[in-house]
Amino acid sequence: MWPIYALGLICFIPISTPATYLTLSLRQLGFSTFETNLLVIPSTAVAICNLLLLTWVSERLNERMLTALIQDLWALPCVIALRVWSGANKEPWATYALLTVLLSYPYCHAILVGLSSRNSGSVRTRSISAACYNMMVQLGGVIASQIYRADDKPLYKRGNSVLIAIACLSILLFIFAKFYYVSKNRSRARKWDAMNVEQKQDYLDTTKHQGNKRLDFRFAH
Predict the structure, then answer these.
(1) What are the TM regions of this chain, as residue ranges (predicted)?
(2) CA gyration radius for the chain?
(3) Which among 11, 40, 107, 164 is most buried, taking Cβ atoms within 10 Å?
(4) Which tens digit of pLDDT belongs to each residue from 103-162?
(5) Per-domain residue ranges of the chain
(6) Neighbouring residues of 83: CB distance < 8 A, sequence distance ≥ 6
């Protein structure tokens, strides 16, 4: 389960940080409070649609890790633009357009919650894994809120460099998690297939392994 917990910790940070400071950034660009409240609506609406679409695609393709990876592939070019573009946080409407694209991202939280539940293997483990995953997500939110610092404003070049690094790390972690669970399933399948019918039945009758520890359990990925 630890790859899912690690993803919950880091994969939302590249988007959570700009999202946390969105209204403040728009106010600093010269938009009024009323205009700011209206300007945040499009990204929220599109993000909801993209969340539903991404979750549906993951179930349709029966491919969850690589589908969830789209979230950080979406975020990375936008964060790079915030870092290297000379007009970032200077040109109001262009910066707003960039932030809107970034925050219209396909949110993979539902996919990871589903994976956490499926890969628990038992009701008891599911309760613990859900709590651990949510703790990691909340901790990631705390980390995200500390990346943009006062001594780095208004361009936040150092902060955006950190976000780029975290987005790249998250992409690699999604790929690692995919291969980790595939290799786990293959290893268990080899051991399980090496048993004859009597050995399999004896294992099922006598094993003390529970939930996702059992040889006949296969991880979703």
Answers:
(1) 6-26, 38-57, 93-115, 127-148, 160-181
(2) 21
(3) 11
(4) 999 999 999 999 988 888 777 788 888 889 999 999 999 999 999 998 888 888 999 999
(5) 2-213
(6) 157, 160, 161, 163, 164
